[in-house]
Structure formats: structure tokens, C-alpha cells
Amino acid sequence: xxxVAQSSSAVLAKAGxxxxxxxxxVGHQANLHILHALARELGVGxxxxxxxxxQVGNTSAASIPLALADAAAKGHFQLHDRLLLTAFGAxxxxxxxxxxxxxxxxx
Length: 107
Description:
This protein is of the alpha+beta class. It is built from 4 helices and 3 strands. Strand 2 and strand 3 form a beta hairpin.
């Protein structure tokens, strides 16, 4: 988890955001224990975690897009919310992104 937290901190620094400015953290949905450990390491309250692993299980590489879609459909994100996305793959690869939630128009 150390590398994921380091990656998250690095991307937040590049974005010029403090952890307290992040509205939602969307981590790889491997298991709830890992998500809670990430929140603890970053110093983020669990209420800012986007979790839906209890509904779909570990969906591997699709976990962040599925968690985003689920939270967006439930109205959890507002225009300009700041999101930290962070993931790992088999402990050998990791990446993070800082994004601002866009206006989405469905046709």
C-alpha cells in the first residue's frame, strides 16, 4: 500500500492539491481492507472513499471505472469535485490521477 499512497501523494503535489482538498478517493476495489488502509495512509476520512466492492466484488482493472459510474449514477459527484483515482496491479504496477469532475450530458 505504501507505493499506492506515495503515487497518490505525488499526483496531488503535481496537481497542487492538498489531501484535504480532495472530495472523493476512488481506489482500486480489490477489497475493503485495502481501501481503508489507503484512506488511513493518506489521512482521508472513510466518508470520502468511493466503495462499491460489496456490490460487485473485485472486478480487477475495471474497478475504478465501475466505481465511478456507480457513484455518478447515484449523484455522489458534483461539478468541479476533486477526485483522486489510484490503482495497483498485482503489486507490480501502480498509478494515480487527480481529476476534476466534469459536466456530463447524457443524450
